[in-house]
Amino acid sequence: MAQFRRLLKVLGQLLLAMAAIIGTALVFRALLFPALLWTFDPDPVLATQLKRLGTLASAVLGYWIYVRYFRKRPVTELRPALAGVALGGLAGAALIGLALVPLFAFGIYVVTAHQGWQWGLLEVAGFLLVAAMLEELVYRGVLFQTLETAWGTVPALWLQAVVFGLVHLENVFAVNGSAWDMVATVFSVTLLGALWALVFVHFRNLWICGLNHFAWNFTILCSGVPLSGIDEWRASAPVLTEYRGADWLTGGVFGPENSLVTLVVVAVAVGLLMHFAVKRGKLRRPGP
Fold this sequence. Notes:
The chain is mainly alpha-helical and 288 residues long.
């Protein structure tokens, strides 16, 4: 009975947190954003970026309000950490680079043309930054921390990771992926969800997680291969590429995140981060 009451409490907290985040974002998009357009009349590209960044800022505000006034604790995970954010971004790019370099070196991915800098890349980068931060806010900020308080770090880590993996099946359905694509996606994105949760466990800072996540995605985009099943962004990449290998190596329609090489790299990173989390006493037990 106690566990059932705890489950109801967790569900209530999750609903309240999402209501705060979505509510503040909707207020911006429905009221503040139209007022900004009417006042300043920006060009369409600037208006799009303003809408994205404003949505992120309002969602962060909603999260802050929820944690500060409903959970009644300091919102330490949103404190600025410029050095940590920079290192987090470099680490995210380096990690996926460990998988991409051998895939290009052994001809699994082949560069077919060099396009150089494309202005469209900047617009996609803005979208990726906002998307990565929103995902970290929801999955590592709300879902992981709520589950961690209820059941401890390790169960929370894997529960939120599985949810993260299942949600990304939508990308596979959008491109009519095969059964193999679906299984590989759930497995690979679950590992990534565990990876970013462990980054949070070590640093307890959502900005560091968000920049690590963004750098991972942006590095894939710049490599000219599909990002999480999204193919249309490849036109903005500095290089054009094509696959010359089996799906288990290339990652198929989902891209390099489903490659066996990437799975090994991420699995090793998750193992190392978990080892050091245990060694340094970073894992938490359930709260009262």
